[in-house]
Amino acid sequence: MQWEQLTWADFDQAVTDTGVCILTMGVIEKHSDHLPLGTDTLNVHKIACMAAEQEPAVVFPPFYFGQIYEARCFPGTITIEPKLLLALLEGVLDEIGRNGFRKIIIVNGHGGNRHLIPFLAQTMLWQEKPYSVYVAERISADRQEAWASITETDYHGHACECETSVSLANHPELVHMERVPDEPALPLGGLSHLLGNMSGASWYANHPEHYAGDARTATEEKGRQLRELLIETLVEFIAAVKADETLPALEAEFFGREDGLAR
Ligand SMILES: [Zn+2]
């Protein structure tokens, strides 16, 4: 169910029936020359909606704000000031909670959020909330072999064979296969002399054109198969979150002990 498509009465019923809201997180950024700016958001939201049809949950409207400072040098990128971004995310989670959801699943659609979202989850111990946050994994370990067997290329990352294939399955009208670069994009290693280093420019140092992989072998059929693995993973996770009583109990215990410190 998509939040923005429900009437108020149907929404209210959906909160009662499912108890779970899914917040998908993508960004607006360059995806090589052949995919639209909203690729991450479009794909992750579509996949969440398809999963929520199988294991009912309410999917929050497409959310386009995340960590994408490394694409600020390209037209069309939308970035938010770091401290405002965190405040915005907390505000969105609180608003989902205020509407009655006690469990919120975050599904990430953008590699550049891989540090932000776990940090956001960790902030849930800063202050007690009336809801619990769960972060879904993209694809379960037992499906990774199947994933690899569908693809022909070994190096993936951005606008690659996988992402382009899934985009072809989800919204073929937005994919420009004739603009796929003639050469694959492998990491340039601009900062490889600093072993183990993490910098704001780490991604840019490897992929200054915001392309990582080789989309020439992407097809709609591969995209359907890859998408199915993503959906299956999420369907299982939604069911597990619905059944979970442990995280809310641990949080209640934690904040109970913290309250004890103040006495
Ligand atoms: Zn992407």
In short:
This protein is of the alpha/beta class and 263 residues long.
Overall description:
With 263 residues, the protein is α/β, with parallel strands linked by helices. The protein has one domain (3-262): Creatininase (Rossmann fold), CATH 3.40.50. 43% of the residues lie in helices and 7% in strands. It contains nine helices and four strands, in the order αβαβαβαβααααα. The chain has helices spanning 8-18, 39-54, 82-98, 116-122, 144-150, 161-170, 202-206, 220-243, 246-262, and strands at 20-25, 58-59, 103-108, 132-135. The protein has a four-stranded parallel sheet with strand order 2-1-3-4, with helices on both faces. α2 packs across α8 (220-243) and α6 (161-170) crosses α8 (220-243). The protein is globular and about 65 Å long. The N and C termini lie far apart (45 Å). The model has no long low-confidence stretch (mean pLDDT 96). It binds zinc ion. Residues 31, 39-40, 110, 158, 163 line the site of zinc ion.
What features would you highlight for this structure?
263 residues, alpha/beta, Rossmann fold, 4 strands, 7% strand, binds zinc ion
Walk me through the topology.
Elements: H1 8-18, E1 20-25, H2 39-54, E2 58-59, H3 82-98, E3 103-108, H4 116-122, E4 132-135, H5 144-150, H6 161-170, H7 202-206, H8 220-243, H9 246-262
Helix pairs in contact: 2-6, 2-8, 6-8
The structure holds zinc ion (ZN).
Q: Give the class-level CATH name.
A: Alpha Beta
Number of self-contained structural domains: 1
Order of neighbouring strands in the sheet with most strands: 2-1-3-4
Name the CATH superfamily classification. Creatininase
**Beta-strand percent range:** 5-15%
The number of helical runs is: 9
CATH topology: Rossmann fold
